[in-house]
Amino acid sequence: MSLRPKHWQVAPAAPPSHIARFPPLHPITVQVLYNRGITDPAGVAAFLSGESGEANPFALLGMNAAVTRLRQALRAGEPIAIYGDFDADGVTATALLVQTLRALRGHVRPYIPHRVDEGYGLHNEALTQLARAGIRVVVTVDCGIRSLDEVAHANRLGLDVIVTDHHSIGPKPPEAVAVIDPKQTDSRYPFGELAGVGVAYKLAQALLRSHRQTPVTAQETRLEEEDLVDLVAVGTVADMVSLTGENRTLVHRGLARINRMERPGIEALCRQAGLKPGQVDATAIGYTLGPRLNAAGRLAHAKIAYQLLETKYPAEAERLAGELSRLNRKRQQLTLETQERARQLALATAKDAPLLFAAAPDFLAGIVGLVASRLVDEFYRPAVVVEVGEKTSRGSCRSIPEFHITDALDECADLLVRHGGHAAAAGFTVSNEHLDSLADRLRGLAAEQLAGVELTPVLAVDAEVELAQMSWELQQELAQLEPCGYANPHPLFLSRNVLVERHRAVGKEGRHLKLTLSDGRAVWDGIAFRQGEWANKLPDRVDIVYHLEVNEWNDQRRLQLNVQGLRPAGLDDAVARLWLDQDGPESKET
């Protein structure tokens, strides 16, 4: 198995007649929108404003039953538990619903399981403890949709369970008081890609609207729906769900609130990360804030992240944000070390298999998902990384668009204790006696489904342009495409035969490449992250794929090219692959 250069796939050019329909916009901006299927004036205006609209929360299947039971609990003073997950999506969802119910004078407590001691999802022991503590209603967030046995156990304990989740549904939903998941087959909700925190927000929205129409307490709540959208933005981006449709609207609004720094915990986290008001975008959440929040659940307990989000005291927020930053630095080092071990194990076990599988007792449960993701990035194969326990093992899976990993786990259900997830990411628990059989079956499924498929990652290029076409004016228009992320990527451009005026390796161990590039009319700074191996082998002229970004340093703002791919000028994919095999950088990554 060898690393392959990415295929540069340039989108077809929009017809000139279409470009002419939008005279105020730069033609490149119109082309980018065209590539995303946004082609009518109303759609373009809505997309660029970031306000594509929100659906009525009561359109979600199960919402009426959930609101009815929670309002009953609020009137009667029944204790409520919010049962969350230990990742950023689950923690933000937990904080959001706890804040909402407390604002409605509810008796509510959070419960987030420990990743190592308990693992993902509902657990009978935890439900039993909650029942003994007097809890009468349990609301799950970002979990529960496949917990049929656990919900049945809760029913026997006299607990009323409301499931809110966004993961793929199994053969049938749990027998709860209400099940809210936009992926239910009989759902008529117009947007099915909400994050867990997005579903929790819709429940909060419904509760607040019902309360204002018919208050359940004598005292009015001061909480507004807009007070919660910062949590929605953080959890949605961190969970890497589609940033289109309603998610785009919610994240757009949430980012505006985050940049006002109105929540002490988020303000402290930004300060620890060196982010100033106005600098937080989806990229900052995905690469800076989200990993810090996730670090708590990976290496300690997610309650640290929860406490940060719910505290009202700046001093406490600063202390907790500092602890998360420390944990994140430790997480980064452990991930690098585990990645190399998993890589060696996977290749030694089945070097040419279409699915990578690595299992070891010293792999940390909080790290295996990150390691699987990096193996996918490196080899463009589905990857499974497993922490082997005494009797059972826990694995995390990451996949590619050509292979639905949760469907594959469904076909291995007879071997598994539990499992769940999405098309691209999933997790499972398996008895050790079935671990080898699971690896063999997953490899077999991958071999069958990927037979004849050329597994080559793609750089989806929006337009081929001249460097001289890049400008501040274009950047200001492209900025209106934010928030960018999954399903709404940063616009990528291809420029050919670019002169490399200067270049050098930068960063720790020279991992990155700093460039000065010119097309004879314009000169640009460029940065190619994780491509430092080119430093000693870069030809004078290259073709580059990049997106335009603003580099802020020492209170100065400059445009630069963030180079995602480069190769000698004039080579097509096949020749570039041959060149890389013979003469290119040792990592063979472009």
Describe the protein.
This protein is α/β, with parallel strands linked by helices and 590 residues long. It has 19 helices and 18 strands. It has helices at 16-19, 27-35, 41-49, 63-76, 88-103, 124-132, 148-156, 196-213, 229-238, 245-258, 264-273, 282-299, 303-310, 314-349, 368-379, 405-410, 435-449, 472-478, 573-582, and strands spanning 7-10, 80-83, 108-111, 137-141, 160-164, 178-180, 356-360, 383-388, 392-398, 416-421, 425-431, 458-461, 463-464, 493-506, 512-518, 523-528, 541-553, 556-568. It has a 5-stranded parallel sheet with strand order 3-2-4-5-6, sandwiched between helices. Strands 7-8-9-11-10 form a 5-stranded mixed sheet. Strands 14-15-16-18-17 form a 5-stranded mixed barrel. Helix 5 (88-103) links the parallel strand 2 and strand 3 (108-111). Helix 14 crosses helix 15. The longest helix is centred in the middle third of the chain and has 36 residues, at 314-349. It is globular. The two termini are 17 Å apart.
Rg, Cα atoms, Å: 25 Å
Rounded average pLDDT:
92
- Shape by Cα distribution: globular
- Percentage of residues in helical conformation: 25-40%
Number of helices: 19
Spans with pLDDT under 50 lasting ≥5 residues?
Answer: 585-590
Task: State the major sheet.
Answer: 5 strands, parallel
Distance between the termini: 17 Å
Give the total of beta strands.
18
Strand content: 15-25%
The largest sheet has its strands arranged as: 3-2-4-5-6
**Structural class, judged by helices and strands?**
alpha/beta
